[in-house]
Design brief:
Layout (H helix, E strand, L loop, with lengths): L1 H16 L1 H30 L10 E8 L8 E4 L1 E2 H10 L3 E9 L2 E4 L5 E8 L3 H5 L5 E2 L14 E4 L1 H8 L9 E4 L2 E8 L22 E6 L4 H4 L5 E9 L5 H18 L1 H4 L3 E6 H41 L1 H9 L4 H37 L14 H26 L4 H5 L5 H41 L10 E7 L8 H15 L4 E8 L10 E2 L1 E2 L11 E7 L3 H5 L3 E4 L13 E5 H7 L9 E3 L9 E8 L14 E5 L7 E8 L7 H11 L6 E5 H8 L1 H35 L1 H9 L4 H30 L15 H26 L4 H5 L3
Parallel strand pairs: 6-11, 8-10, 18-23, 20-22
Antiparallel strand pairs: 1-2, 1-12, 1-13, 3-12, 4-6, 4-12, 5-6, 5-9, 7-10, 8-11, 9-10, 14-24, 14-25, 15-18, 15-24, 16-18, 17-21, 19-22, 20-23, 21-22
Helix pairs in contact: 1-11, 2-9, 2-11, 2-12, 9-12, 9-14, 9-20, 11-12, 14-20, 14-22, 14-23, 15-18, 20-23, 22-23
Length: 819
């Protein structure tokens, strides 16, 4: 221990005596370590930390899985009907508890300005299953999820603070939701959210923030309904049951239901996934790719610092030779030099940690809104431990090779009064060459990855959405079911649209559900007149409820037939409009106009709806998913309590928010609007995750490029300085300036080009790991590889040329006296 303390003191004095060297090395390491700590904090918070529930490893999501088209294995994460959930709950023995829930917007009224809130209707077993208790009051009691049990509600901590001023007597008070009284029975803990945004499939319209929880109660008719799939199911495994065992049992139950209820369950299977995987599975790959990329940046920084240590070791050869001559062992010298490098890396770790605090704020600012578990991202004990360990390892990695090289000096040459330093530097040239090749290769891999992401993102932005998103405002309106029913819903939205169309600055207005790129999706089976679905195939399409002016407001072109008009009322013949994808899939060689379909999936005459038009494909789910079959339904013939108003304006859409809210309140003073967005914002949000990945990988690639260029420049400058005597002799013997420049540049470019070759091979292998993050671009895209290779070669050429030019400025007489 005493020897270690001596080494630390001696190393600290040496680093303080050379502030320039120390500052450059610490800054380079702080950049690499800080970037790694910042990205690791995101990975730790999103992927590694356990979910904030009791025994989270035993929590599962249980979904339906059903085949959509022939040859497909089926679509996982499909919602569940009430009847199927009840059978799952009563028949299984694998789950300790099981609960169902779904979301429903709810209007808070009679206590200030009306507000639309995210509501969750859940089984009474949900909160005991999660192991969560209320901060105030209680959660649902057994039996409160039965019809006629009374209206009770749990509110979130945030809503309690924001809307009720943290009133400690809130429990027992009544609040109005959807114009009906509910009794507050509890306030949930601070930070509790279930489900959180981004944790469940994009096809479910879960709220950005769940503020209200009410019991999920079914009438006997609702409990027996197997045709309406709308529930998400969460379950807790028995302590001695594995996921595989639970899957086998649930497969057996699904098979029983197929036999009992062939009309509804013939094509339904069961899919079980852990709640943690459900929450982070879609972002895990991207975050791990970013963590690997930032590790490359650290390796390049380590290579630069190792080069600095090699140069510094060359200047300390006489000191090391004297210590060796006085009896110091080689191990003792290596330990001393490793101590100095570890001190450097720990200092870099301290500054890197400070840099990561700023980096985390930047990451959170640019992160996509649907990144799950953002509230868990912070610098905790695990991040501190990671930073310390990576700092320690970094010190050993970049310090070991220079220490080993320096620990075996040529005593005769080093102790000679006039011994040339160049002879010392020659022994390190091979290792420096390896470092340069490594830096260039690592930088090229990162740059290729960034180039592929950029090209992919540009391709995505150029995708034809099928609509015109410019100057379009979208506003959600959810009507209370008990207050507005059937044609009352139709009358409300028709009156609202008429009022909006008369507003100054409004070009056209309509309504739709679900809104394109909103994250909400629906699926509906149907039958085709005169046709039966082939074995293993189901006729399925995404329904869209729209007003007659919707296509005009969104500028969706009609390619055949006609669009809806005001004459398509509830009393008129039932009609639908389909998209091109549906026409291609089901009427490839026929004209679909005039054909009839039925939504219940049978050939029952009274349910026929005639196809009157075909419209362009619209990217409803996301820009990177191909258009799917879709059916547009005139909402006067199929009323909906929830619609999104779309308003095309002649100016800034957001300037009309107040006027739109006023028109809605003029019709019903208790009716709020919510989720106000421009359509351009929704398009931008739909690619936010890809933008985030591209931006970070691009930044890491740029940093890697700069660090590698600095490394090449530093090595070539040092090499030129070591060869000053040689270059002076060449100049004295008549060598031309161009010959000297070519000599120096050739030396550096051979290493750089070799690094480019190694990097291209490595990129060819490693970029396959990011194939799921790309759109429309191959991981072996030749254009990207060529451009990145040329870019790096050009930067390397410049980094070699500058020291070469400086070498030609040396006076030969001075160079010949150089020692």
């Amino acid at each position: 221990m005493e020897t270690l303390i001596q080494d630390v003191r001696y190393g600290s004095r040496l680093l303080i005596k050379r502030p320039g060297f120390t500052l450059v090395a610490v800054l380079a390491l702080a950049l690499g370590i800080g970037a790694n700590s910042a990205i690791f904090s995101v990975v730790n918070g999103v992927v590694l930390q356990a979910l904030p529930y009791k025994d989270p490893d035993r929590l599962m999501m249980v979904w339906n899985r059903r085949p959509l088209f022939q040859g497909q294995a089926g679509s996982p994460e499909f919602p569940v009907s009430a009847a199927d959930f009840i059978d799952w709950r009563d028949r299984n023995r694998s789950f300790e508890q099981i609960a169902a829930f779904h979301t429903q917007p709810m209007n808070l009224t009679a206590s200030g300005e009306p507000e639309s809130l995210g509501g969750v209707r859940a089984s009474a077993s949900l909160f005991p299953l999660l192991g969560v208790e209320a901060k105030l009051g209680r959660t649902f009691a057994p039996g409160e999820d039965q019809p006629g049990a009374g209206r009770v509600v749990l509110i979130s901590y945030g809503l309690w603070e924001r809307r009720f001023g943290s009133d400690p007597d809130i429990v027992g008070q009544q609040i109005n939701l959807n114009d009906e009284p509910y009794t507050v029975i509890g306030v949930m803990p601070r930070g509790f959210q279930f489900p959180r945004k981004g944790e469940l499939p994009a096809g479910f319209q879960f709220p950005r923030q769940a503020d209200l929880y009410t019991p999920l109660a079914w009438t006997p008719a609702q409990a027996a309904n197997r045709g309406r799939d709308y529930l998400a199911v969460v379950a807790r495994l028995q302590p001695d049951v594995t996921v595989t065992q639970a899957q086998v049992e649930m497969d057996g139950i699904a098979e029983q239901l197929k036999q009992q209820y062939p009309q509804n369950n013939a094509k339904k299977e069961v899919f079980i996934v852990s709640l943690h995987q459900q929450a982070v599975g879609k972002v895990r790959a991207a975050l791990l790719v970013l963590l690997g990329a930032v590790a490359f940046v650290l390796l390049i920084a380590c290579a630069n610092v190792a080069n600095l240590l090699l140069a510094r070791a060359a200047s300390r050869q006489k000191e090391i030779a004297i210590r060796t001559a006085l009896g110091a062992s080689r191990i003792r010298i290596i330990r001393q030099m490793l101590t100095e490098s570890v001190l450097l890396s720990l200092a870099g770790g301290v500054f890197g940690l400070l840099l990561s605090l700023w980096g985390i704020d930047v990451l959170l600012a640019i992160s996509p809104s649907n990144l799950p578990r953002v509230d868990s991202i912070s610098v905790d004990a695990r991040v501190l431990a990671f930073t310390f360990v990576i700092s320690l390892i970094t010190g050993i990695v970049f310090g070991l090779a220079p220490a080993v090289q320096a620990s075996k000096p040529d005593l005769g040459d080093a102790l000679k009064e006039g011994g040339r330093a160049s002879s010392v530097g020659f022994r390190h040239n091979r290792f420096r060459s390896v470092l340069i090749v490594s830096e260039v290769a690592l930088a090229l891999v990162l740059l290729v990855g960034a180039g592929l992401m950029i090209r992919s993102f540009v391709r995505l932005l150029n995708v034809d959405t099928g609509l015109d998103s410019n100057n379009v405002l979208t506003v959600d309106v959810g009507l209370p079911r008990g207050k507005f029913t059937g044609q009352q819903q139709v009358a409300f939205f028709q009156q609202t649209i008429e009022r909006l169309q008369n507003l100054p600055g409004v070009e056209s207005a309509g309504a739709v559900y679900p809104l394109p790129l909103s994250g909400a999706e629906e699926g509906m089976g149907f039958g085709i007149e005169g046709r039966q679905a082939p074995t293993g195939e189901a006729f399925n399409a995404g329904p869209r409820w729209v007003s007659p002016d919707y296509f005009k407001a969104m500028r969706i072109s009609v390619v055949a037939g006609r669009e809806f008009t005001d004459r398509d009322t509830s009393d008129a013949p039932r009609v639908v409009v389909i998209n091109e994808a549906m026409s291609r899939r089901y009427w490839l060689d026929e004209d679909p106009l005039g054909k009839r379909i039925a939504f219940d999936g049978t050939n029952a005459g009274p349910n026929w709806r005639q196809i009157i038009g075909v419209v362009r494909d619209v990217r409803h789910t996301s820009l990177d998913s191909a258009p799917k079959p879709e059916i547009y339904i005139p909402f006067p013939q199929f009323p909906s309590f929830f619609m999104t108003l779309v308003v095309r304006t002649t100016g800034d859409p957001l300037s009309l928010v107040g006027a739109i809210r006023g028109e809605v309140l003029a019709i019903d003073k208790n009716q709020p609007i919510s989720n106000v967005h421009t359509m351009e914002q929704l398009v931008s949000d739909s690619v936010a995750q890809r933008r985030f990945n591209m931006l970070l990988l691009g930044v890491f690639g740029a940093v890697a490029l700069v660090l590698s260029a600095v490394g090449i420049y530093g090595v070539m400058s040092y090499s030129v300085a070591q060869r000053t005597h040689e270059l002076g002799v060449r100049m004295a013997l008549g060598a031309q300036t161009s010959n000297l420049v070519a000599l120096v540049v050739r030396q550096g470019m051979v290493l750089a080009l070799f690094g480019v070759g190694v990097g291209l091979a490595a990129a060819f292998a490693l970029t396959r790991l990011m194939s799921s993050l790309l759109y429309g671009v191959s991981t072996t895209d030749p254009l990207t590889y060529s451009l990145i290779g040329l870019l790096l070669a050009g930067v390397a050429l410049l980094a070699c040329y500058l020291p070469a030019r400086r070498a030609t400025k040396v006076d030969p007489m001075v160079a010949l006296r150089y020692e």
